[in-house]
Amino acid sequence: QVQLVESGGGLVQPGGSLRLSCAASGSIFRINAMAWHRQAPGKQREMVAAITSGGSTNYADSVKGRFTISRDNAKNAVYLQMTSLKPEDTAVYYCNADLRTTWGTKSQGFWGQGTQVTVSS
Questions:
Q1: Buried b / exposed e along 57-83 (16+ C-beta atoms within 10 A)
Q2: I need a labelling partner for 36 at 20 to 30 A (CA). Which of 43, 58, 77, 120 fits?
Q3: What confidence tens digit (pLDDT) does each residue in 97-111 have?
Q4: Do strands 10-12 and 115-119 pair parallel, antiparallel, or not at all (unpaired)?
Q5: How far apart are CA 90 and CA 45, in angstroms?
């Protein structure tokens, strides 16, 4: 009933930019925090950036100053603007939303299917 769909991933050169988008749809009552996580082969999944419903943000130290998270509450969407990309940014990026569904009584986490970001020459 709830689906998160990411878009915007792809292949870029080091120093390039990408903008990831994630739109949540379905039986959503309210979205609390939204976040982007990433996982590279052989590594643990890590939080990249998060944003609350009020717009407060947090970033992993590795992306501070390079990535910017934003959201459009009216569209149930979250975005990740990535600049000055490095090869180590290569990973599958996942959208996450902490939300309450119309059929539930408490908030829970939902995940998108992931989108591949590859930074290479």
A1: eebeeebeeebbbebeeeebbbbbebe
A2: 120
A3: 999 999 999 999 999
A4: parallel
A5: 12
